[in-house]
Design a protein that fits this description.
- There is one protein chain.
- It is built from nine helices and six strands.
- By secondary structure, it is an alpha+beta fold.
- The protein has three domains: 65 residues; 50 residues; 100 residues, no CATH class.
- The protein is elongated and about 90 Å long.
- The chain starts with a helix and ends with a helix.
């Protein structure tokens, strides 16, 4: 088998390039081996494949050259969703929200566009769109942030004897809040992002505790949000 310089260069690139499909890389190696005038049997033994496989790709290359090593189009139904419809779904997902919800679901988008949920899901996967996911981020400006982290982590790694450790967290579900930074919209491959920091526009404070032993939840409402109210809650 005789190869042109361009064919040999292309085959060698296919054979050694990491991103080449494994099947195509193997076919390229078979043809390169055939160009050394070795028999199908010798090539098959060296590559750990069958003689029939070597013979098939040798014949395909002789008939169609490089194009013969590529996968042939598979039979199936013709494409029904055109590029314009795909673009419309992506644009609607990124730039709009449904009337009765905060994010699109496959069902709502399918109803809006007249497609199946499967089709919408397939398009979202292709563009890495995940409307249901929202991630938060926090950039601490506290100059003592590292020291505080060490203190807290130290309690977990080396807890003192007979010490009462309280884990306190603040939730914002019952507060009228506004984010300090604009919401960063969803993009292909990236969920919607919101700043962790917020500004309060009126609030009522709920202090709540969970008794891990009994499972009981203890809660009190207070107008203010200071150490005094927190200490009062702990005393009760």
């Amino acid at each position: 088998m005789i190869l042109t310089a361009d064919e040999r260069e292309t085959l060698e690139q296919w054979a050694r390039r990491p991103k080449t499909a494994q099947a195509l890389a193997q076919r390229a190696r078979i043809v390169l081996a055939c160009a050394t005038d070795r028999t199908n049997g010798a090539i098959a033994i060296a590559a750990g494949i069958t003689r029939q496989t070597v013979g098939r790709w040798r014949t395909r290359f002789v008939r169609k050259r490089l194009n013969g090593l590529l996968d042939e189009p598979r039979p199936g139904a013709p494409r029904k969703i055109m590029d314009a419809e795909v673009e419309r779904i992506v644009r609607l997902t990124l730039e709009t929200t449904p009337r009765d919800a905060t994010h699109w679901s496959t069902r709502a988008m399918a109803k809006r566009c007249g497609l199946s949920q499967t089709a919408v899901s397939r398009i979202w996967r292709a563009f890495a769109l995940q409307p249901h996911r929202v991630k938060t981020f926090k950039l601490s400006k506290d100059p003592l942030f590292i020291d505080k982290v060490r203190d807290i982590v130290g309690l977990y790694l080396d807890p003192p004897d007979k010490a009462l450790v309280l884990c306190v967290d603040e939730k914002a579900q019952i507060q009228a809040l506004d984010r300090t930074q604009p919401v960063l919209p969803m993009r292909p491959g990236q969920a919607e992002r919101r700043s962790h920091d917020y500004t309060r526009h009126g609030t009522t404070t709920l202090f709540a505790a969970l008794d891990a032993k009994s499972g009981a939840v203890i809660g009190e409402f207070h107008r203010r949000h200071r150490a005094r109210e927190f200490r009062t809650f702990l005393d009760t």
